[in-house]
Amino acid sequence: MARERGVGRVGERVDAAPGHPASTDVGVTARARATGVGGAGARSPWPGRTDGGAAALSLAHDEHAIVRGLWRGIEVFRVLALAYAAWSLYERRGDVLHPTAAVAVLAVLAAWTVAQTVRPMRTVRAYTVELLLGCLAILATRLVDDADVITAGAKTLPSIWPSAAIAGFAVLRGWRGGVAAGCMVAAFSFIEVVQPTANTVTNSILGLLLGGCIGYCVDLARESHEALREAMRRDAARAERDRLARTVHDGVLQTLAYINRRAVDLGGEAVTLGAMAAEQERILRTLVGQGDLGEVDRAMTGATDLRATLRHVERPGVQLVSPAEPITLPRRVADEVAAAVEAALDNVRKHAGDEARAWVLLDDDGRTVSVTIRDSGTGLAEGRLEQAAGQGRLGVASSIRGRLDDLGGSARISSVPGHGTTVELRVPSAGR
Prior knowledge:
Elements: H1 25-35, H2 52-59, H3 65-91, H4 99-118, H5 124-144, H6 147-151, H7 163-193, H8 198-266, H9 270-289, H10 293-301, E1 303-305, H11 306-309, E2 318-321, E3 328-330, H12 331-351, E4 358-364, E5 368-375, H13 384-390, H14 395-406, E6 410-415, E7 421-428
Parallel strand pairs: 2-4
Antiparallel strand pairs: 1-3, 4-5, 5-7, 6-7
Helix pairs in contact: 3-4, 3-7, 4-5, 5-7, 7-8, 8-9, 12-14
């Protein structure tokens, strides 16, 4: 009978591989809990719905069905391959030079098979050990067989038993792992036979095809599984947003719109409150009304015009001077700059005097966005900021300088007693 070389086995995937997330039951369950998708007893994201929706979500917490089937197949194949190797040895027992050594080699393979059957170890380390056992058993054939019998095309001692390791690496590491394991088995086969025969070449190619094809199928299965989980996550998010939209639309949105309208009618400092209400209404309408989750994310964290963000600071005694062109910054950066400006204006209100006026000047030179707050107040005495910091009063240090430092920018404060104070805030522009 033609020589048969080990082709390898498909193993369940536990260790994380490059480009392949870990996928044991425990690992997937943990990932599902983190995303709120799947798992036994998981709630359906649709209130009151516990039928097909929840059943579909439970699929996502477990490994793909194809991979689970491959693991079971490997475990059965390993046992059958060992039985086939033992039968082959018994069939040609008269031609074996050292039958005791041959039985000892198969006994080692049998011990590993029993261990993997009773308590499967589906890790790269375990399958590396199994691959080495299979390859060493191939080389052991030269110790128990006559060289002429080997050259004539007799089976190797482990026969097809190493095939389980190839398939295992295909499941653990994808097609690259399967092909690499197949190459290793093929190399040991060529070393053992010395003079390769047509059967040696054929069986080696079959091993490479087995590892590559199984690994490719597993890669596709995992990719489709991840795509399904992402689609289910988005569906759940949309359903929850739709539910919130029905609750929010008739309450919060109308209230914010009313505050904005009344603030405009009242004028004065109420305009600031109205501008803030209008901005929150816009964000909330985007959140509850957009079907595209990407659009929602852009509305919450995307770019915004700093001029619009600072519009609410303008009031009697405070003038906002901005260029005609938009000054675009990431929303988080714009919000932090606005908070620093508000802190500076709050200091003007508290310390500059009742008659003091303030100006907020915006500028963007393409590399840096600068916001300058000037007032016509009494100014600061020399060393006043350092004295305040020493007394534990960190308003300027944390509310202004601390915010700008976190953004990678800077804050410079200059003052002349009797001639007001200037606060200059600088942050990198959106394009930098």
